């Protein structure tokens, strides 16, 4: 379970368009946050990456294809790369993603008798003869801001600074990384913010 509360992010007053595909647009609640975030576009201009700190030890990495590139081919690009700090006005959808999957068949196919069925040795956690009947993996991700409604434009306060505007208003990938180890804690694909990933 991952809950991300973007510091200094505020909800825009009106829902914004999100382009689900070439024929479908939906109105979704969006967040806006301005700050210095790490950013990069690849040399061929097929995607952009923004890295946003979400705590003292975790990073939210957002990858959006440019000009209709395919999300499926972008997942390998989510590794933390050399990103450069930029002053950015970032706009992205509020998200709540929930899902669960039954891992029983997967683990059975891996033939792990020490974990499943009557061959499981669980004596270290109980004297009772325990068996594992079901293995369920549940995932929950929620992205919100810490403000309620958007105040005045925060970029107006820094008139001498040029902000790069990055708007995630079409399908994108996101990941949460532990900062020091660079271990990926969560990976998601957003194709329609109203339906989760």
From TrEMBL:
<dbReference type="GO" id="GO:0004867">
    <property type="term" value="F:serine-type endopeptidase inhibitor activity"/>
</dbReference>
<dbReference type="Pfam" id="PF00079">
    <property type="entry name" value="Serpin"/>
</dbReference>
<dbReference type="InterPro" id="IPR023796">
    <property type="entry name" value="Serpin_dom"/>
</dbReference>
<dbReference type="GO" id="GO:0042981">
    <property type="term" value="P:regulation of apoptotic process"/>
</dbReference>
<dbReference type="InterPro" id="IPR036186">
    <property type="entry name" value="Serpin_sf"/>
</dbReference>
<feature type="domain" description="Serpin">
    <location>
        <begin position="1"/>
        <end position="193"/>
    </location>
</feature>
<dbReference type="InterPro" id="IPR023795">
    <property type="entry name" value="Serpin_CS"/>
</dbReference>
<dbReference type="InterPro" id="IPR000215">
    <property type="entry name" value="Serpin_fam"/>
</dbReference>
<dbReference type="InterPro" id="IPR042178">
    <property type="entry name" value="Serpin_sf_1"/>
</dbReference>
<comment type="similarity">
    <text>Belongs to the serpin family.</text>
</comment>
<protein>
    <submittedName>
        <fullName>Angiotensinogen</fullName>
    </submittedName>
</protein>
<dbReference type="GO" id="GO:0005615">
    <property type="term" value="C:extracellular space"/>
</dbReference>
<dbReference type="InterPro" id="IPR042185">
    <property type="entry name" value="Serpin_sf_2"/>
</dbReference>
């Amino acid at each position: 379970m991952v809950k991300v509360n973007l510091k200094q992010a505020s909800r825009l007053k009106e829902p914004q368009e999100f382009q689900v595909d070439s024929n479908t647009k939906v109105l979704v609640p969006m967040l806006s946050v301005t700050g210095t975030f790490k950013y990069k576009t690849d040399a061929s201009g097929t995607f952009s990456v923004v890295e946003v700190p979400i705590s003292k030890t975790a990073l939210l990495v957002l990858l959006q294809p440019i000009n209709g590139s395919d999300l499926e081919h972008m997942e390998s690009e989510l590794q933390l790369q050399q990103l450069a700090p930029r002053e950015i006005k970032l706009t992205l959808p509020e998200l709540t993603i929930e899902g669960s999957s039954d891992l029983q068949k997967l683990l059975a196919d891996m033939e792990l008798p020490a974990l499943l069925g009557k061959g499981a040795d669980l004596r270290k956690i109980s004297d009772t003869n325990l068996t594992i009947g079901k293995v369920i993996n549940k995932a929950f991700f929620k992205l919100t801001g810490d403000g309620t409604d958007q105040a005045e434009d925060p970029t107006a306060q820094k008139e001498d600074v040029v902000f790069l505007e990055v708007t995630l208003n079409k399908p994108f990938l996101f990941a949460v990384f532990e900062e020091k180890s660079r271990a990926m804690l969560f990976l998601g694909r957003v194709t329609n913010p109203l339906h989760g990933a």
